[in-house]
Specification:
With 533 residues, this protein is mainly alpha-helical. It has 20 helices and no strands.
């Protein structure tokens, strides 16, 4: 039975929930709101802390991502696995979130107030005197080591708490008959949290950055505690009835699928042109995001050197991402039905091409355009360049959480079971790692050659245009293969189904493909693949 015939057209769109399901879905919505709220604020303040730190800048980010974040992510995964093998899921949830909140408490009351005592500025100054200018980011990473750890812990909140803890829990307790209705609401709740996080963070911002940081992180700790209280209430009052125990018991009988190694991923992808095209899309997206954001954050710091002003601007961007992502998610089903897979998939790279062209044009020709731009707009070319960079960040992230993820998941559906299962695991393994690490390594290489982000900007622009061109060609090739497999009618049917389910992607990077892959047991991003009864 469809949702519209079960609830009516209006209720099926806004609240397709039965009365007896309220005690399950409402606590889950509260949890994802607070988790995503914290995630969006942490994503902003981690950049503010490291980029505006003493003798630092945006050039520190690629060094942190490669030399600290990657090893720490592996370490956290190993620790989480050990905890999961030893303790129950409920206890692991409490231990993990409590550990994050304890560090945040220590940071705002110990590490940040006494940063001058903890940070080895004399040693860093001597290192900076003998090392090449291109390693300034590495020196800043070591100089402000507590800020570096804070950046990494904030980044891991998204992967460990949001993707692993929450979405594994949601996948564990949600039935197939509930998934489409529940995940749509959870996704929209997550995306709306971005709107509120930017507004509330700006409300808490004052002229003192240290007081602002203390207020914001205190709110994060409070919301984290509320999340654990709600989770405890669910385990005590919702997940202990007989119907859930029978459902949960049937899931425990199934073993989770093993993720492919990097070598196995490359080997499997090399045998399929179709999967290679999907991998190209994922790699190109992650490359473009990482290439542009470093340059944009460098320009943003030049425009707003104060951490207070930097934080305010980033919060406006976060709220804008939430608004755009929510609007797109509401109409994505109709968009795919009207334009088809290829044109819908092209929206993301084309929008990034247009905004990227504007960003790098005002970056590279700022001196030539300074007078006419000031005469026409009354502002500087730097401000215009930052605006185009912000537009690209807003559109790219909003499209990622709606259009990009929906079309990507849609492309897996025509494949056979084994190809779908192994192909998705391979692409999740290769695409994300190559894109994110590749972008950071490109910036490190250019910094070593040219010494600063500003000098290396023209080369970043050329690489960006090449990557987007490759991305567009990959979409066109994949679109032809996709159309040949499913045909026009099948394309529209699949598009409508996936689009309506993929609203969950708007939860600011949460659980890609959970609904579409739930019946097949496909490993989604951060999901423990289980098969619902």
């Amino acid at each position: 039975m469809s949702s519209s015939s079960e609830f009516g057209s209006i209720r099926s769109f806004f609240w397709p929930i039965h009365r007896h399901e309220m005690r399950k879905i409402v606590p889950m919505m509260i949890m994802i709101f607070f988790i995503c709220f914290n995630y969006n604020i942490l994503r902003v303040i981690k950049d503010v802390v490291v980029v505006t730190a003493k003798s630092s800048g945006a050039e520190v980010i690629p060094f942190i991502k490669v030399w600290v974040l990657l090893p720490m992510a592996i370490l956290f995964t190993l620790i989480f696995t050990r905890l999961s093998n030893r303790f129950s899921q409920e206890r692991v949830f409490y231990i993990t979130i409590s550990s994050f909140l304890a560090f945040f408490f220590l940071f705002i009351f110990v590490f940040y107030p006494y940063r001058e005592y903890f940070h080895p500025h004399a040693l860093a100054d001597s290192m900076e005197a003998v090392l090449p200018a291109g390693l300034k980011g590495l020196v800043a990473m070591c100089r402000n080591w507590s800020f570096t750890i804070f950046y990494v812990i904030c980044e891991l909140w998204g992967s460990m708490v949001l993707s692993v803890l929450f979405w594994s829990f949601a996948n564990e307790i949600t039935k197939i008959t509930e998934a489409r209705r529940f995940y749509s609401l959870l996704g929209l709740t997550g995306s709306s949290s971005a709107i509120f996080s930017g507004i509330i963070s700006n409300y808490l911002t004052n002229d003192s950055w240290e007081e602002t940081l203390r207020s914001i992180v205190t709110l994060i700790i409070v919301f984290g505690c509320i999340t654990m209280v709600v989770f405890r209430w669910m385990n005590k009052n919702v997940l202990n009835d007989e119907s859930f125990e029978e459902f949960h018991k049937s899931k425990l009988e199934l073993k989770p699928k093993k993720k492919l190694s990097m070598r196995e991923s490359f080997s499997y992808l090399s045998n399929s042109k179709y999967l290679i095209c999907i991998a190209i899309l994922v790699v190109c997206y992650n490359l473009v995001i990482n290439l542009v954001e470093i340059v944009w954050k460098d320009q943003l710091r030049q425009l707003y050197p104060s951490p207070v002003d930097y934080n305010r601007y980033m919060n406006y961007v976060t709220s804008s991402v939430g608004i755009i992502a929510t609007i797109i998610a509401l109409f994505i089903a109709q968009l795919i039905a009207w334009t088809g897979w290829t044109r819908t998939a092209l929206i993301t790279p084309v929008s990034m091409l247009i905004t990227g062209t504007g960003f790098f044009t005002f970056m590279l020709f700022r001196h030539d355009l300074a007078e006419p731009v000031f005469a026409l707009t009354g502002t500087t070319t730097l401000a215009i360049a930052v605006f185009f960079g912000a537009a690209q960040v807003c559109l790219s992230k909003a499209c990622k959480y709606s259009l990009f993820d929906a079309t990507r998941e849609m492309s897996f559906i025509p494949l056979g079971h084994e190809c779908k299962l192994k192909g998705k695991a391979a692409i999740d393994g290769v695409g994300s790692r190559l894109g994110k690490s590749g972008g950071s390594l490109v910036h490190q290489g250019l910094l070593m050659l040219f010494g600063s982000i500003s000098v290396s900007t023209p080369y970043v622009g050329v690489i960006l245009m090449l990557v987007i061109s490759c991305w567009i060609m990959g979409i066109r090739s994949l679109g032809k293969q996709f159309a040949a497999i499913v045909g026009e009618k099948g394309r529209e049917e699949i598009g409508e189904a996936v689009a309506s389910e993929s609203v969950m992607e708007t939860g600011m990077g949460t659980g890609a493909g959970a609904v579409a892959s739930k019946e097949e047991g496909i490993p989604g991003d951060g999901f423990q693949p289980v098969k619902a009864s």
